[in-house]
Amino acid sequence: MKKWLIALVAVLAVVGCSKNTAGLRVDGASQTVHFGDNVLGSRLNIDDIATVDVDGHARGVVRLTSLYKSDQHIQYRFYWYDEQGLEVNTKLAPWKQAIIRGEESVALSEVSLNPNGKQFRIQIRENDQ
Predict the structure, then answer these.
(1) Rounded CA gap, 98 and 43, in Å?
(2) pLDDT > 90: what percent of the chain?
(3) How many CA atoms lie within 13 Å of 126's alpha carbon, on the beta-carbon side?
(4) Residue 117: its pLDDT value, please?
(5) Nearest-CA neighbor of 49 among 32, 24, 73?
(6) How far is Cα 112 from Cα 98, in angstroms, rounded to an integer?
(7) pLDDT by residue (tens digit) across 7-27?
(8) Looking at residue 71, what DSSP letter applies?
(9) CA separation for the pair 104, 49 (Å, rounded)
(10) Where are the alpha helices (DSSP H) in the chain?
């Protein structure tokens, strides 16, 4: 019994320490896309990455096009950074949900609540429903 308990604790520790690389990560400052999920990466095309000023606050906009014929249920979350690259969120916003219809283009956007937020990163993952 002890061996099973020790094995279970070891497995949970490894899973808890593993880095979650599922999905896509789009960096607004460097205009780069990092693919952690090859299936999702092959189904979505990142058309445009932009940061625009809205009344003294930055708005991050990422335009996606579905390369897949069926609906895709995704979740996404924006992270905001100041000009030095330090995160300005005091607490993470919840994951937002979106449905991208087959071969449709959509824009995901968010305005930084913190006026010091000038750069963004968005994480996109499949919604398991």
Answers:
(1) 15
(2) 57
(3) 16
(4) 93
(5) 32
(6) 19
(7) 333 333 333 433 444 687 777
(8) -
(9) 17
(10) 2-17, 38-43
